[in-house]
Please model this.
Amino acid sequence: MSFSSEVKNELCKIWPAKPCCALAELYGMLLYASQLSDREIRIYTATPRLGKKLIQLSAAALGHSLPWEISSGNTGRSSLSLTDVSAVRELCRRFDYDCTHGVIWHLNGWHIIDDCCRDAFLRGMFLTGGYVADPETGYSIELSGTHAALAREISALLGEMDMLPGYVRRRDEHVLYYKDADSIEAFLTHAGAHHGVIRLMEARVIRDMRNRINRKVNCETSNLMRTVEKAGDHMEAIEKIRAAGKLGDLEPGLLQAVRLREEYPDASLAELAAMCEPPISKSGFNHRMKKLEAIASALSGRTQE
Model:
């Protein structure tokens, strides 16, 4: 089962504590239905529990049951449809939409004034229009709907809740999304998916730790490569001086640097500096090696002449 399905199953088990919240959750589910008009409501879902919850919420909102039809396909998805026009319009009127000349779908915000109702509304939207990626592979949560005006108004609502989403249009879909773990955690917390939040936090800790380890390994590998490359330059300079018969002309400090570099070819400058007698600083040892490279360069220039 996908992480998104786990979250939806968890949310389906939540029954709103107050009638106003039940109405708000149903409102969110309907606004993000796959098809929404004053003649038909249709929801496609892979969440088995959703049909029962939709029927119960509809009955709670109107005081009687509605003729919802549930059919299952071969793909594992179910279709939840309400095609009785009088029942559809009764449900629309419950949320204050005028069905006389067709419905213009806007967010009637007076149904979700209280914080508890807004949380229930988010839960309903996610159940029918939401998707959240497995946090072990990436951070992403989306709400996809077909009405542009609703997307703008719901974006403003989420902004009032300090969760302003991003927006993108994909063909006929208007998608609100978050791509960072903090926003996804906040959204799921408001919706009531506490187990999902725990999964997200656990995956986030593991992912952050893995990233820190990778950064450290990459840094150490880079430092090692620089050390090896620099040691190669040093050895090349020493060989040029030896080939020219000039090692005996070097001052004691440079001779000591030559001996240590040849004896410990994989050591860092700091390690070689500590081996000097007496010990010197890393910059001091680096200065000696630069002098050796300068001498080798000068000898090469004379040879070419």
Notes: Residues 4 and 159 are 23 Å apart (CA to CA).
